[in-house]
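sorry for the late reply, my laptop died twice this morning and i had to redo everyting from scratch. anyway the thing you sent over, i finally got around to it. pasting the sequence first so we're on the same page, its 116 residues, then the predicted structure underneath. double check i copied it right bc i was rushing
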Amino acid sequence: MALCLFLATHPSGAQPLSSGERTFNVQCKACHAVGPNAKNRVGPQLNNLHGRKAGSVEGYKYSDALKNADIIWNEAEFSAYLKNPKQKFPGTKKFNPHVANEQIIKDIYEYLGTFN
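ok and here's the structure:
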């Protein structure tokens, strides 16, 4: 039983997943990719998110709302977006459930920051 628990929480003997990575894997990974081989999926890849202009990932077909958004991604903008994407950018294609918990948003943003 202990071995099963260890393997479930420590894939391939690696370090335990951070809260942000666990949340990303559950809530974001189906649509977004990160890492050295990240490619656009249903949503754009999220490498180098911090400091990037919204709607600017090459090869991703953004909604006009994001293409025309005049923001640079930072933690505050990211938080406002995850809390209510359609309010932040009316007309966005994003269809995720709203994330209201500030700590979860912070954890995801910190995790994404490891790919800057």
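DSSP finds six helices and no strands in the chain.
thats about all i looked at so far, will dig more tmrw
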